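thought: fold this chain, then report.
action: predict
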Amino acid sequence: MNVFPAEPATPRPAAALIPLRDGVDGLECFMIERHGALRFAPGATVFPGGGLEPGDHAPSWRALWPGAAPDDLPWRVAALREAFEECGMLLAEAPPDPGRLAALRAALAAGTPFSGALAGSGLLPAPHLAVPFTRWVTPDTQARRYDTLFLLAPAPPGQEPLVDGGEAVAGLWTTPRRALDEAAAGCRRLVFVTRMILTRLADCPGVAAALGEAERADLRPIEPRLVETPAGAVFRIPVGCGFDPVDTPVEKVTLG
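observation:
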């Protein structure tokens, strides 16, 4: 009897925000540690993010954009929403009143949709401050797949991160190099795309340099492919996509 492989799962659109700041040792990014019981990337240290929701496509978001809104606005909204839900930071033009931020968190915890909770809070998010940096698609070898746009943004001034205690159990500011070194020492779990992004950011001395990289970034989707080579199986990414190495042995790749 012939057994045919199942069709690859369709990637779910997703977005992630990488908050940045200049620290004593150079560029720092804010990351969260995922709960160990989650089905996807349990216990991994990742950037705040998640799948797009219907409300992220609401026409009302276009009123927040200074001019004609871009096609990626729903991804920007999702990145802002997820960052606020998971670590309590709202990307905004000016430092928001702490009481309004607390009220917004309470409204979301009560089940109010993000757009409705924002309208009631009087807070004004600034999705135009987020800069698309790279777009990655989970390999078709995985049952759970995402097509994720990663965006960089200066950390909102005057706001202290506050993880939700649900999906995110801890948060930290770290330099990209420190996070990579801790993962190499077995002290931190990084999925493949996070490790690749940290490796690229590690070459940026500060926020301005990282945002400059994003402004020049190639946003064509990067989907690692499983390839057999004489030296063994690797996950391969396109040459010239802005990330290295092109080939990574499968035993060194954590996908979820």
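thought: worth noting. The chain is about 25% helix and 25% strand.
final: tokens above.
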